[in-house]
Design goal:
Elements: H1 2-8, E1 14-17, H2 21-31, E2 35-36, H3 42-53, E3 59-62, E4 77-80, H4 88-99, E5 109-112, H5 119-133
Parallel strand pairs: 1-3, 1-4, 2-3, 4-5
Length: 150
């Protein structure tokens, strides 16, 4: 599903955001994208963030280290694959990361990938209620409704 979404937004700068390091490493391999996590040295983090800012890197996989204090204004798409349970603050930070105005005026997309009939579905509903109360609008889309570009 994440690969489909990244391909759908091939012309955008995409952040794939999650909490589970093994999952993020697998996604980095699948997407052929660098992964930034807590063990990534600061110099390497800054190099990758700068390459993303300038468009040299179109997709970046990040752990919770990118939740705060990282300036990535051109990120137009965020794909959240895992979060800290029902953390409303974390989701709001991640959403805010892509909603910043873009230099070229384009819009932003925020996706949360959730497996049906799991505890994650309950956590996602909790976060969704909070953001809906803040005035954000959600559209729930089934994976089958997003075509595989391949």
């Amino acid at each position: 599903m994440v690969r489909r979404l990244v391909q759908r937004h091939a012309d955008d700068q995409v952040l794939v955001i999650g909490a589970y390091l093994d999952q993020l490493d697998q996604l980095g391999e699948l997407l052929d994208a660098p992964v930034i996590q807590g063990s990534t040295r600061n110099r390497e983090r800054e190099r990758l963030f700068e390459a993303f800012r300038t468009g040299q890197i179109r997709t970046l996989v990040v752990s919770k280290v990118a939740n705060v204090s990282i300036d990535l204004p051109e990120a137009g798409v965020a794909i959240q694959v895992s979060g800290t349970f029902g953390s409303r603050q974390e989701e709001a930070q991640r959403l805010g990361r892509v909603l910043r105005p873009k230099a070229d005026g384009r819009g932003a997309h925020f996706y949360t990938v959730v497996s049906r009939d799991t505890i994650d579905q309950e956590y996602a509903a909790h976060r969704q209620r909070f953001l809906t109360e803040q005035g954000y609008v959600y559209t729930i889309v089934d994976a089958d409704d997003i075509p595989d570009p391949a």
